[in-house]
Amino acid sequence: MRLDKFLKVSRLIKRRTVAKDVSDQGRVWINGRDAKASSAVKVGDEIAIQFGQKKVTVKVELLTESTRKEDAAKMFTVLKEEPYKNED
User: Which CATH class is domain 3-83?
Assistant: First the structure.
């Protein structure tokens, strides 16, 4: 599954276009590597997302093409949330 679609279906990011923009800005990493919107996501991958001053790391648990709001949280497990420190 594409990264932008996973972020939208899992409701980590509300809109696919926003997920694409965030990915293309270099604010998403899969298993420690920079990820683009078209990057493939597999079960077991760790995805880190920078939301402003916060960095959230999740583990992919389930891939489905569509999901109900109640079931979206089953698609991932939050591993850690931490303040984001810009390394520039």
Answer: alpha beta
